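In response to the reviewer comment on reproducibility (Comment 2.3), we provide here a single inverse folding case reported in full, input and output, so that an independent group could reproduce the run without further information from us. The structure tokens appear first.
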């Protein structure tokens, strides 16, 4: 299995659970999510993935300049449409493409650091980022309704298992 397959699997899992929850649950704010909604976290990770696909053609990725669409946050159907578009677009990108990531840690616009990267490296970052957010979403969904139990690939179990393996505890 390669990074594209893994990313597609995670997005497919997101799709399955978006189809199971109501918009009411999707937009409800939760303490576990820092008083944000499942929709907020879903929008956040999907927009990061959109960003690397859209900006990779320029050779420079700046996550601060990603497109922001509040409709993704408010509507599961919109999130599902974005997932479908990502699943369509991801296989068309050149994974070996070298990129620069443009980041700013200052309030001064235009004061950037540039870091060498690649599309594949940024996709790996985004996959880990998505799994992290999915783990938080899983906590909320399991609290709301245990029938929304997520498969291992959705986040927490997989990350804990890997953590224990790295520590030599498994």
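Designed residues, in position order:
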């Amino acid at each position: 299995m390669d990074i594209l397959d893994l990313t597609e699997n995670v997005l497919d899992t997101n799709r399955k659970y978006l189809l199971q929850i109501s918009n009411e649950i999707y937009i409800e704010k939760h303490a576990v999510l820092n008083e944000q909604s499942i929709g907020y976290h879903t929008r956040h990770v999907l927009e990061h993935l959109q960003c690397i696909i859209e900006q990779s053609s320029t050779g420079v990725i700046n996550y601060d300049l990603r497109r922001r669409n509040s409709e993704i946050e408010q509507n599961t159907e919109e999130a599902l449409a974005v997932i479908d578009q990502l699943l369509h677009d991801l296989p068309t990108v050149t994974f070996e493409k070298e990129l620069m990531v443009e980041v700013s840690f200052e309030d001064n616009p235009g004061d950037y650091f540039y870091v060498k990267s690649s599309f594949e490296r940024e996709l790996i970052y985004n996959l880990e980022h998505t799994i992290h957010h999915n783990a938080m979403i899983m906590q909320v969904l399991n609290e709301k309704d245990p029938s929304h139990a997520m498969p291992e690939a959705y986040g927490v179990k997989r990350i804990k298992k890997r953590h224990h393996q790295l520590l030599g505890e498994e």
